[in-house]
Amino acid sequence: MPRRPQRHMVGSGSDGTEDSDSSAEREQTNSSENTPDLKRAADHDESPPLTPTGNAPSSESELDISSPNASHDESTAKDQANRGDSDKDLSHRPKRRRCHETYNFNMKCPTPGCNSLGHLTGKHERHFAVSGCPLYHNLSADECKVKAVSREKQEEEVKEENNSRHATRHQTPTLKQSRYKEQVSEMRKGRNSGLQKEQKEKHMEHRQTHGNTREPLLENITSEYDLELFRKAQARASEDLEKLRIQGQITEGSNMIKTILFGRYELDTWYHSPYPEEYARLGRLYVCEFCLKYMKSQTILRRHMAKCVWKHPPGDEVYRKGGISVFEVDGKKNKIYCQNLCLLAKLFLDHKTLYYDVEPFLFYVMTEADNTGCHLVGYFSKEKNSFLNYNVSCILTMPQYMRQGFGKMLIDFSYLLSKVEEKVGSPERPLSDLGLISYRSYWKEVLLRYMCTFQGKEISIKEISQETAVNPVDIVSTLQSLQMLKYWKGKHLVLKRQDLIDEWKAKEIKRGHSNKTIDPSSLKWTPPKGT
């Protein structure tokens, strides 16, 4: 069964050479004068040249907030041979943390007893990964085909019903939709009743027999409706992975970096990044977590870390609260660092197009500090002069910091800058599916917080926009998704849904006081001239 990522951190042996005092006593001052001398001081080892090779794309950056469509397999024997003598003596190295599950590229399903026939989606004759294995999911190939036909039939019915609705202005559900809602409510009534004794014994017997080689039995854990939704999501994800395999984006032995050693973490990459070919073909890349220089071996990285004087990103520290800091890095003043940051980000973003043409952009890099330095958490970039008032061009949270609230902090910080600039901001379009989910979650929280404190009788979308710095178009789309915007007698009405507000209040109380929030009083920043 694929491994789940753990949230603890394991130290690496190379950290012992770092100067911890320089991080603890860092000053919140401008540091843009650092680059030439620091690069010369840190570059007497065998690290790669400062300027990456390759042509700079001319297209603009796109917003990508992605989660992995697939994780990659562990380094192959060919990768191990390329690493040379750097990995011969590993006895002194502590075990590194690996992020995300692995993906098997062998042309045979890794599930014991499986003959690789059939596919979870019911659309393919063979499979080569656990994600598409019917046996792992306690199904047969024929059952998967039957379920696929049923899903297609349901999708056709939904399409026909949507096409038969002549107007979308009135949100009243149809009679069929009302009946279906009642059926779903009825099916969900007993979903929290728990398992019976016989069912528990059956589940335990299945686990003892198959261990981690089979999916746990899911029947009777929740309602049939919710279980079917989960099965549909599994099939969709499996189909996406199969498309990637067929298109050759994930192939065995491809010229692609599969893992990177980044500080205390060993990270599986998700996508191709245009590093120079001499580095990309290695399969494993070694990256300094402070200056982001990339190297070919553990030996070179260890020598580099002994001499690297960087303990935080270049540029100006514009925000600090507790251990969280944000640095403003000018793509023109710190071109090499920003290029390396973009190359690193592309390993985890699918459609990112900005790599080398970084001069028109400002990069806001979030870090978490400890006694060894400021560790990269994530970043977002924005154009210095955006004609459409985009406040984010590209945004990324590093895999080891995902699902911890840092992504929402980055989004909140981008809107805080828009408030200081006295502008209304919005992320650059098009938004990816996961990007829309992340932003919609943030917009929902902002609107419910505003509604919670609003005491007037008439709500103006323009006033909400001016107070929150959220674009009116984004406010309207969020209100529609929350079913809080209605059209009645020629007027648009905003409904104050108390049930949603009460639900949000309960979540806030349960969440308690969190340090994963942006404090406006900790911002020390003035808008750049000319913006």
TrEMBL record:
Point to the regions of Basic and acidic residues compositional bias: 36-47, 71-92, 155-164, 179-189, 197-212
Q: What is this protein called?
A: Histone acetyltransferase
Cite the InterPro entries for this sequence. Acyl_CoA_acyltransferase, HAT_MYST-type, MYST_HAT, WH-like_DNA-bd_sf, Zf-MYST, Znf_C2H2C, Znf_C2H2C_sf
Judged by the first EC level, this protein's enzyme class is transferase
Instruction: Provide GO CC annotations from the record.
Output: chromosome, centromeric region; cytosol; histone H3-K14 acetyltransferase complex
Domain MYST-type HAT, which positions?
Answer: 252-527
Has UniProt tagged this entry with the keyword Nucleus? Answer: yes
Where found? Chromosome, Centromere; Cytoplasm, Cytosol; Nucleus
One Gene Ontology BP term is: DNA replication
Name the residues annotated as catalytic in the UniProt entry: 428 (proton donor/acceptor)
Q: Which family does it belong to?
A: Belongs to the MYST (SAS/MOZ) family.
Domain of life (superkingdom): Eukaryota
Q: Supply the source organism for this entry.
A: Liparis tanakae
List every stretch annotated Disordered.
Answer: 1-97, 155-212
Q: EC number(s) in its UniProt entry?
A: 2.3.1.48
